[in-house]
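Hey, I'm writing a tutorial for new members on how sequence and structure tokens pair up, and I'd like a real worked example in the thread rather than a made-up one. If someone can provide the structure for the chain below, I'll link this post from the tutorial.
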Amino acid sequence: MTRTREDIEALIARTALGDRAAFGELYDATSAKLFGVALRILKDRGTAEDALQDIFVKVWHGADRFTPGGASPMSWLIAIARNHAIDRLRRAQAAGGLAPLGEEGLQVAETRPGPEAEAIASGERSRLDGCLAELPEDRAAAVRGAYLDGDTYQVLAERHGVPLNTMRTWLRRSLLKLKDCLTR
């Protein structure tokens, strides 16, 4: 069942009040998407599953910080997931890298979304790809690196041969253009 923005906002508001049933519904409605975000950044299923648990702990404890009517509730949740996954990736890289997926990791039950959710996600992905195509190639690559791959601004600045503040400006302006494009 696809939830509307208002449904997700209501679930977050009820979660902020300590409503465990609402938290369970919120998990059911959003965990596949947030898992996908974590998996895309961490590139390891087991690590992404562990991260998802931590992400929802953060959601439980921070639900009172969400402002209904402001940012999209999914954007807020995805930001939590993305930031947590990037932090986890950086910690793992600093400690010598992520552990390889063991044989037990291959036994994990399938958690992919169903056909309806995949169709919706595919449509959203197509819209985002179309909007990214409207950006200059270097700006689109920087956005993908920062927000999909978890690259730091410094790494991106070095990769593209521009000063750090220029990279920040590129990303900020690119996000504004993407926002405009996605709201058309």
